[in-house]
Amino acid sequence: MTLLIDEVTLTYPDGDGRLTALDAVGLHVPAGSLTAVVGPSGSGKSSLLAVAGTLVRPDRGRVFVDGVDAGGLDRTARAALRRERIGIVFQQPNLLPSLTAAEQLEVMAHLTGRMSPSVRRRAQDLLDAVGLAALARRRPRELSGGQRQRVNIARALMNDPAVLLVDEPTSALDRERGAEVIDLLLALTRERRVATVVVTHDTGHAGRADRVGAMRDGRLTAGTA
Amino acid sequence: MFVAWRDLRFAKGRFALMGTVVVLMTLLVGLVSGLAEGLARENVSAVAGLPADRLAFAAPPDGRAVSFADSKVSREQWEAWERQPGVTGAQPLAIRTLRAAAGDRTASVTAFAAEPDSGLAPRGVGPGRVVLSAKAAEELGVGAGDAVRLGEREAAVAAVAGEASYSHTPVVWTALDGDDATVIALRTGSGADLAAGDEAAGTTALSVDDALTAIGSYQAENGSLQLMRGFLFVISALVTGAFFTVWTIQRSADVAVLKALGASTPYLLRDALGQAVALLVGGTLAGAALAAGAGVLISGTDVPFVLDAATVLLPAGVLIALGACGAALAIRRITAVDPLTALGSAR
Ligand SMILES: Nc1ncnc2c1ncn2[C@@H]1O[C@H](COP(=O)(O)OP(=O)(O)OP(=O)(O)O)[C@@H](O)[C@H]1O
Ligand SMILES: [Mg+2]
After folding, report:
1. Rg (CA), chain B
2. What is the pTM of this model?
3. Complex ipTM, two decimals?
């Protein structure tokens, strides 16, 4: 259960030329450990998560998710890989407005075609794990920003992913709530033996990670918080 | 349909609005269909019900279409048809609209005059003896055994039978006298050479279905109602397509999130199309039920309205099918949504 990114380069079309968002980036995240990625805006942090999450194909380099080479997969197989092995926590919670907190998790099981009575229990347990057991029947508009973010995290864990990718989970929260979210992510990473990458602006939060990488102009260097 | 069902309930107002449009469209199409069929039957049921497979008209002058009003055939012509190989029957039929009277009641009726033993006229028709369709009997207030005046002649009612109607007037069956008729009712076997028959008799033979258009008002009346119906079908497909286009665009951010979470495109298409079909089926069934209810009420009045599966359920089925096509075209744009847009703060 690891994430391995090997010499990945990603460019976007930019006018007549190409903009290099990731420049020969390498990253290895072992199971049960949390790597924080820091760096200025526009340095390529989200792009790194997009590549790791198989949302975009890199120009060069390879991505292994739990031992599977994502480069060899077509669009359908990448979607399957995402729902089976990858948990994504979005910067904005991106919850579906019509679903209750519990259903936000249950839909993940529905995507894989594995709906069963145990799914309900699992969703309830996960909401419990993020401290939202009492709010399972609320819809996103009835939840606070921090509560939504915790639903977002629980949803990412629903299908027992090998890799957890988290994009700026604390940007919409105050410092204290932000620290709680980082605590939660650390605890879940250890407990469930996931390979976790957390992008954050906050160097204070990054200091709690097992490792820290610094992004600058598309290059990733081992950094200190 | 995990998400689609919940969206339906969550966005109740929007879907209720669209559902109402579907209900009203179905109601309108059902009413137009019932009315078109009712009017058509009043117009053509007597001709459509003739025990014949073709009708021969007097050949019209060049460039004109055949019509019951202008057609006149003579004994030589129907005898020429009788001699054609493969023709098993050629019976003259005279059609004339006239006033009927009984006591102080009068009605406009169409007399269908045929030879009594020809098989065209119902049993009981003979010289001085006529058979009234139910509506004619009702309008004149007479029954079997009573006397009626048809134009200048007196006749006895031999029987009341059938619902035959022609050009919106009830039919009265009488015996043919004289050597003239309007058309020749043909029964043909497989080997009949129709072109040779037309050549020999100087007529134009049409199938009964084609002959219906030779009834003056039928084509104009039926054509405009069918056109209306066609437009309603097209409009409802377009409206459904437009609604689901807007809806799909509105939820494209949710679609991107679901794709990023690993939903396959077929899964999302099924989900969205299922929602459209559920809305269409619900709205259409409600509309069809309303149309059927209205049909029952209308049937008690003088308005010709036919309430059956063909006038209520068939258009409902067409509405569902066309609506689903419109929705499918709109929903197709789900395919193009990029899951990458779910990442980052650009929401
Ligand atoms: N879809 C895209 N098309 C073109 N260019 C893009 C796209 N996404 C990102 N970029 C560019 O790639 C570079 C890296 O962007 P990225 O979103 O990875 O930065 P980031 O480190 O996440 O920034 P932030 O902290 O502001 O979220 C930026 O210059 C950005 O403008
Ligand atoms: Mg970013």
Report:
1. 29
2. 0.84
3. 0.93
